[in-house]
């Protein structure tokens, strides 16, 4: 199944794309999407413990299951205001 | 209900994010209960906050900032933060607008208004909201300074982090 991955701020810079489509095993989690991504872009691995995630534009945990067509977003530490 | 005529005021959303320049007046209007509403006249205070782009940060001379956001999630974050404030200060009414894109020194990046029957709650709720926006809203600033640029990274955004929420409440009520 395929999911859309969205990256923001420095994560986007490190991966060189704001949005990408990726294949994921059925039953996969947000964490699995992240691990594949960090394998593809090793520079992202440093963010393992500081990122948060969103699933279909709602905050989500790394163990949340993803489904075909979902939008998974990874957020580096925020700095709004 | 928005009506586009000369005599009707165009409705301002309580929560917004986008590239348009910010002003406090629309937020004040947004939190003001209109006459005719049963709650009209109940408020005794509106406290506003305007966050500005500063020309210095950690010893660097800042030239400008570029704000990026995940707008759909940011609006949900603002709604969540407003709900938290309503839970803590039940009679407040909150408006939050955040700007994105390139902002020059002195321009406003965030505007907040909190209306309440009593000024103490309005001050506390307003402060709480900006603290929580900085903690969890999916917004990032890239700082361009003399000699380079850097993404500013603050808090890991975790809306369920109880300690962060308590810290925001503590600051708000100090």
Write a brief structural summary.
Chain A has 81 residues and is an alpha+beta fold. Chain A is built from two helices and five strands; from the N terminus they run βαβαβββ.
Structural description of this entry:
- The complex is a heterodimer of chains A (81) and B (174).
- Chain A has 81 residues and is α+β, with helices and mostly antiparallel strands.
- Chain A has a single domain (2-75), classed as Roll (Ubiquitin-like (UB roll)), CATH 3.10.20.
- Chain A is built from 2 helices and 5 strands; from the N terminus they run E-H-E-H-E-E-E.
- Chain A has a 5-stranded mixed beta sheet with strand order 2-1-5-3-4.
- Chain A is globular.
- The mean pLDDT of chain A is 97.
- In chain B, 37% of the residues are buried.
- Chain B starts with 14 loop residues before the first strand and ends with a helix.
- With 174 residues, chain B is of the alpha+beta class.
- Chain B has helices at residues 24-31, 71-88, 119-136, 162-172, and strands spanning 15-18, 45-52, 56-57, 60-69, 93-99, 101-104, 108-116, 139-145, 148-152.
- Chain B has a single domain, classed as Aldehyde Oxidoreductase, domain 3.
- The chains are: A alpha+beta (81), B alpha+beta (174).
Essential attributes:
heterodimer; A: 81 residues; alpha+beta; Ubiquitin-like (UB roll); 5 strands; B: 174 residues; 5-stranded antiparallel β-sheet; 4-stranded mixed β-sheet
SSE inventory with pairings:
The complex is a heterodimer of chains A (81) and B (174).
Chain A (H helix, E strand, L loop, with lengths): L1 E6 L1 H7 L3 E5 L6 H11 L11 E4 L3 E2 L10 E5 L6
Parallel strand pairs in A: 1-5
Antiparallel strand pairs in A: 1-2, 3-4, 3-5
Chain B lengths: L14 E4 L5 H8 L13 E8 L3 E2 L2 E10 L1 H18 L4 E7 L1 E4 L3 E9 L2 H18 L2 E7 L2 E5 L9 H11 L2
Parallel strand pairs in B: 1-5
Antiparallel strand pairs in B: 2-7, 3-4, 4-6, 4-8, 5-7, 8-9
Helix pairs in contact in B: 2-3, 3-4
